[in-house]
Structures
1.
Amino acid sequence: MISVGVRGNSSATRRQKRTTSRAETRDGGRGIDDAESAVAEYVDGFHQRGLHSEIGQLPPVEFETRYRETQPAEVPQQIS
């Protein structure tokens, strides 16, 4: 069966990368520092490049930037 999806960014590709990372961590005997680094790298990629259907196929960082641009500027209130 042929996989359907965006080339290089499909959920199947991301799943495969996670599976590979888990196997490397489990079988490679790497330490906690390597595991923490791998998790931080995954989370960064998820937020910077991961497309999400609930927010219009945008990465969370881009969605937040667009949202903030549409909000009125906050005016500081003076405390009397």
Note: Confidence is low (pLDDT under 50) at residues 1-6.
2.
Amino acid sequence: MSSWSRAANCSSSSTPGTSSTITDRSVIGDPALANGNGVLIWFEVEDFDAAAIRAAELRAEIVLPRHRNPPDGDGGPNHWEIWVKDPDGYTVVLASPYGTADGDWKPSAAGW
């Protein structure tokens, strides 16, 4: 089973304002590889532009620059995302709230 399949087979449950509980504790990713292999951590942030600027100020490694999810069309979360690496090697996804990618976004002076 691939690391992505294992990740897809993990289940979690959470209620807004509470933490998630992972119910499948199998290995995610290849333990022979660096920390963060096979793990993505999502955070919804109210002020997406400020979070993206802060990531740039901290010189976070950009995995995927600002993009819309889904890339086009209707459906999906219709929000903005930026994927960065944290200092321990984990991929962290900063996402705007659902429904906020209305197409009117323009890059800021920081290039986001």
Note: Residues 12 and 18 are 12 Å apart (CA to CA).
3.
Amino acid sequence: MPATKYNKVCSQCGSDDVFLDASAKWDIHTQQWVLDEVTEPTSENSFCNECSDSTTLHDVAWQDTPADLLHAALDAHFNKKDSV
């Protein structure tokens, strides 16, 4: 049985248009910002775009829709490596 997936949502409005503060550092080799540290979500570092305010985040169980399952199957089919 597949593991349960969760979505992070705003505790006030239920939106999943949420963000969490994190820190990044510059990688001279890739010439990109690389995620360095993600802190535990609190009301001081979590933000909901729908509410336009700080929030606390809640986990809600998420189930694949038929479109998600189709996308995963197509991705697996077209990205499988040929055996040598």
Note: The longest strand covers residues 32-38.
